[in-house]
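User: Can you model how AFP sits in this protein?
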Amino acid sequence: MSKLTTLHEFIVAKQKDFPFASGELSRLLNDIALAAKIVSNDVRKAGLVDHILGAQGGQNVQGEEQQKLDVVADEAFIRAFENGGEVCGIASEENDDFLAFQSDTAKKGNYVVLFDPLDGSSNIDVNVSIGTIFSIYRRISPNGTLATLDDMLQSGEQQVAAGYVLYGSSTILVYTTGNGVNGFTLDPAIGEFFLSHPEMRMPENGRIYSVNEGNLNDFEPTLRAYISYCQSNENQTGKPYSGRYIGSLVADFHRNLIKGGIYIYPAVPSAPQGRLRLLYECNPLAFIAEQAGGLATDGKNRILEIKPSQLHQRVGFYIGSKQMVEKAMGL
Ligand code: AFP
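Assistant: Here's the modeled complex, given as structure tokens:
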């Protein structure tokens, strides 16, 4: 029997690849794994426990209804970061403003984490896969002080690590530190993540397109032409591609990462800047896509080069197999 590698063993073995190999980032990744296990456990209980299932009653900063699990996940990750000692501040899709941790230990943390605690949360009540997405940066403010807005508003190219946790038919944690992409599946019986998807590569081309086709009439002509191409016999496969849209970005992305495909959410009249958030969703997934050989743009520009001006900034998002994204952009 071949030896199983736990996430912890993998992180320790790879520590030398990190740009700042002091063990801090390793500890931070382990904190994320711990929070992911807690949230995974809560997600698995969602259908059973009345007080977890259903709306919390409040709205988040985007005006969207907050589900209880959104709040549970947000708090679990914030607690892990605040107690871990490596993080001086966070920004989360669920909170209006960023949070600078106040303790002396936290002020000495060298990292900030930006995250979407529960992406696809409108799918919770219908038992569809949801996920956590995270992005890690080195702070630019001086160590020993409070985290600042500038720490949060760095371009995606500055990410030192990014990843996601998909709470699907199994729970999988996928991450990159800029040296390829690896995936770890949670064994719930013993609460351990094991390396299950080493050195993930996104196929250069694919035959799956993921788009909310209800918005089709609002797409600009180049994109409409691309969707027609996907649905025609004129593409490289000689038959229509498969349309697959879960409505949970993490789940759609994960499938396309493995099988090859493209996810598109352009700017539309109902979401004039795009629907997805640059800092919490697009940057981390763009980093992973590129590390796996894929591509991510806003339809014109590389996502990782966009300089953010606001915490909750939204952008159009084209992500997936390189050749498909290029074609969708009309290149
Ligand atoms: P929620 O977290 O509010 O469910 O939003 C999910 C999401 O950000 C992304 O995961 C989906 O792909 C996208 O929005 C779905 O948006 P539409 O419902 O407009 O297709």
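A couple of observations from the model: The mean pLDDT is 93. The chain is about 30% helix and 25% strand.
User: Helpful, thanks.
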